[in-house]
Amino acid sequence: MNKKEKVGLLAIFEGIDHVGKSTIVDMVSKELTKIKRSHSQYSFPGKKIGTLGRLIYDLHHDNGSIKSEFIDNESKQILHVAAHIDTLKKDIIPDLKEGKIVLLDRSWWSTIAYGIGDGLGKETLNDIILPEKKIIDKIENIIYFYIIRKDIEQDFDNNKAICILQAYDELCQSEKQYVVKVKNNDSLESVTKFIVDTIMAYNK
Prior knowledge:
single chain, alpha/beta, 5-stranded parallel sheet, 5 strands
C-alpha cells in the first residue's frame, strides 16, 4: 500500500494596510510553534534578500535605484504577480507537499484590490493574475482570512481606499474557497486564538 501523501494547508491573510494583518500572522506563527505544528511563513511580494519579491518590496519602499513613481501601475502589478509565482513555486508548494501549514501575508486578492485602487480595470487585472491563479487553484486546502478593523476603516475617506475596501468585499463574496472574516477589534490574543483554532479545525 502506498504511503498516504501529505497535504498541507495554505492560510492566506488579506486586508487593507494598517488593520494589523502582519502582526496577526506573526502571532499565529508563534502559537503554532508553541503547539509544535510544522509551518512556514511568507509575505507577498516578499522581503527575503536575493529574491524577486525583495526587489519588488524595495521598489515600493523606494529602497532601490528604481522608484515606484516612475513605473506604470499595470507594470507594477505584473511585477507583483511574477514575485508571487516565484515564491509559490520555490517555497510554498514544496512546503505544502511536506504537509506544512503555510501562513501567507497577501496574495492575488491584493493585486486585484490595490490595482483597482490605482485605477486599473477588472478585466485587465483578471488577465494579470491568471498565471498565479492557475497555481493557487490547484492547491487542495486553502483558507482566506480577511482582516477588518472598523476604527481604521472609518478613517479612510479618500477614493482610493474606498475602492480598495469595496474590491476586498467583492472578493469575499465571489471567492469559492473558504473565507473567514476576522474583526480585529478585540485583543490580539483572542483574535490569534480564534484563527489558530480555525486553522486546526480545518486541518484535521
